[in-house]
Specification:
There is one protein chain. The protein is built from 15 helices and no strands. It has 436 residues and is mostly helical. It has one domain (2-435). Helix 5 packs antiparallel against helix 6 and helix 6 (152-176) runs antiparallel to helix 7. The longest helix is centred in the N-terminal third of the chain and has 37 residues, at 37-73.
Length: 436
């Protein structure tokens, strides 16, 4: 069981890390431009990018676990129907989001914390990025169906293709062609288009076990309901992450100004990098847990949960120690401004104070999703960000903590939300599987 999880998790972890390069590389290059406004402008776009990714996860992370369960039962025809319906949903959501975001991007950016100074930078990046929404939907939403068939290395290559294109094009567009934030966005869109083409080529090719067929694209209400129900967990997590980012940016802008929004952009960048291996491990366990659950191999499921827990918690403790000890070198990856570094170091230590507790949330969520328990997954997605982080982000600065209160909301939520999720998973899933 452990070997199967490692086989899936290692390529998926590498893929997750590579995937982060899409936006991380943009931030690293833009952080080298004079001042911090380009980096701050990009940071204001991150909540909107999270929303777009949330819709991709709604279909991809909703349909892929169902495919794994169907494969475990030997129902490959139904698995293909689920994949086809997921693809149709991705196209519909992508088209609708492109139109809506283009129409309302100005009020949205100001609502999300933009000022008159930072809006031009955010608007330049977002306008181009939105035009590539369909590519985001396809590459991010359909790649889980490659992993669900056991082709985790191919899923990794899918992400790597786009990341390499992005890394090559970024310096050309940003510096050589002097396009700044527009160049970063253009490089990202082109790279996502390359990933989307790769995904479709594989899923319609000879090597795929489950193929994307025209006959499976017609939506069926019952199937759509199952996909969206299970995918709601990942969707809610993206939406609540976006909500938290919006509230953080708006609060920091109100209490401390653009510099602190830039600090939060760097913090979010580091958080995305260090949480990707955790997501790779937990996402890698989902097809394995789902397949064995569908086959009735409950003791193997328990074994997989134990292995995933040990691996995830061990990594989280190690990376937490690194972040707490070395905040300055991590900040300098994105920006060398003395003011940003002096403000960023104490902010880092507050924000990441209890980072390792977040691993409990990822473990519980992945088990719930992998076994098709959508209601549990949705509840705990909402609990940490919507019911703990969001209120604290508003309350703590107002009662005297100032900007530190914004950063303090995250470690409190990690402890409360993480423990609640892992305890509930143990009581309702792990122990029950032992009895069966």
């Amino acid at each position: 069981m452990a070997r199967n999880i490692i086989y899936m998790a290692v390529p998926m972890t590498v893929a997750q890390l590579i995937n982060i390069l899409y936006n991380i590389v943009d931030r690293m290059y833009l952080g080298r431009l004079p001042g911090h406004l380009s980096l701050t402008g990009l940071g204001l776009c991150l909540p909107i990018i999270s929303i777009l990714m949330g819709f991709a996860n709604l279909c991809g992370m909703g349909g892929a676990p169902l495919c794994s369960i169907c494969r475990g039962r030997g129902e490959n025809d139904e698995a293909e129907e689920i994949m086809g319906n997921s693809f149709s949903l991705l196209l519909l959501f992508g088209a609708a989001l492109t139109v809506l975001c283009l129409m309302f991007r100005r009020p949205i950016l100001y609502l999300f914390g933009a000022s008159d100074v930072t809006f031009p930078y955010a608007n330049d990046y977002l306008t181009i990025y939105i035009l590539g929404t369909l590519f985001v939907m396809i590459s991010l939403g359909m790649n889980p169906f490659i992993n669900a068939q056991g082709f985790s290395r191919m899923g990794m290559i899918t992400v790597a293709v786009g990341a390499v294109v992005n890394i090559v094009l970024d310096p050309i567009f940003i510096f050589l062609m002097d396009l700044g934030v527009k160049g970063a966005a253009l490089a990202t869109v082109i790279s996502q288009a390359c990933s989307a083409v790769w995904v479709l080529k594989f899923l319609t090719g000879k090597k795929a076990i489950l193929k994307l067929r025209m006959s499976a694209l017609r939506l069926k209400a019952e199937r759509v309901k199952r996909i969206l129900s299970l995918g709601t967990s990942g969707f809610v997590m993206s939406m609540t992450n976006s909500l938290a980012q919006v509230l953080c940016n708006a609060s920091l802008e109100a209490y401390s100004g653009d510099l602190y929004v830039g600090v939060m952009t760097v913090i979010n960048s580091i958080r995305e990098i260090i949480t990707m291996p955790v997501q790779g491990i937990t996402n890698g366990c989902q097809p394995v847990l789902g397949y064995n659950y569908g086959a009735g191999q409950y003791q193997r499921v328990r074994q997989g949960i134990r292995f995933t827990t040990v691996l995830t918690v061990g990594y989280s403790v190690a990376v937490w120690a690194v972040v707490m000890l070395l905040p300055e070198p991590l900040i300098r990856i994105f920006n060398n401004e003395p003011d940003l570094i002096s403000v960023g170091i104490p902010a880092f230590r507050i924000y990441f104070a209890t980072f390792f507790f977040m691993s409990f949330q990822f473990i519980g969520q992945s088990v719930f999703v992998g076994l098709g328990r959508s209601k549990n997954a949705v509840f705990f997605s909402l609990l940490r960000k919507a019911f703990i982080v969001a209120p604290l982000t508003l309350i703590l600065p107002a009662v005297g903590f100032g900007a530190d209160g914004v950063f303090l909301a995250e470690p409190i939520s990690n402890v409360l939300g993480g423990l609640a999720c892992i305890i509930a998973m143990y009581a309702t899933v792990y122990r029950q599987l032992g009895k069966e």
